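Attaching the record inline, Q. Sequence:
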Amino acid sequence: MQRKCPQCGSLHVRRSSVRASELTAQRILLSPYRCRDCRERFWVVSRNAYYLATLVGVALVVGALAWSIGNMREERASIPEPAAPQAGRITDLAKLADKGDPAAEYELAMMYMTGFGVPKNETESYKWLERSAGHGNTAAQYELGLALRDGRGAIQDFRGAITWISLAAESGFGKAQLALGVMYRQGTGTAVDHAKAYTWFNLAAAQDVGGAAVARDEVRKLLSPAEIDLAQSEARRLGAPRSAAPETGSRTRPPGH
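Structure, as predicted:
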């Protein structure tokens, strides 16, 4: 910025030194200049004042942005979370479950398992899983098998676990097929049987169940070509469409129950 003498209007000016007596608060953002033509000495706004103004402007912009972000977060926090199922819904489910509705029994079981809408209670979850599984709900049969395998809500029972998981797997439930393959591979509730493990992994992989294809390919390395051929044949048989599948509400109990 060009400096101009206020007395004669000349642009022929130079910066002057600040005297000790002139160091006051009023002049902290001013700089002295002297005109080379008329020798007038005058004060103008210093470059530091412009720098300070720039910094203040930036600080104000940053502050405004921070305030806006804070308000947005408060608005999001004020949005209520989705309400848990109302008591009426739970009452309706309980009425249906008491009448032997397998879907209602399973939904109640999962609510007690997760604590969604009701106090978490693994024993109560197991009770409703057992009822739903006995009424033919394949998802409940799978979850009941896992509960027995892990000892959740009931005494740990590997044989009971493999029985229920087998029922769900034989009905085409992909997650149950993967779990059953793992049990045969590890010998949980049954003797180790890599051929059967391969069969169930193969069926689960056909349904794109996560991890099934990798497990199948790993266990295949432990089988002879003849064993692989037989296991693949068994998988085709088990995976063939059933002409008369049992109804969802029909009672299904595993052997020995």
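The mean pLDDT is 82. Residues 69 and 75 are 10 Å apart (CA to CA).

More tomorrow.
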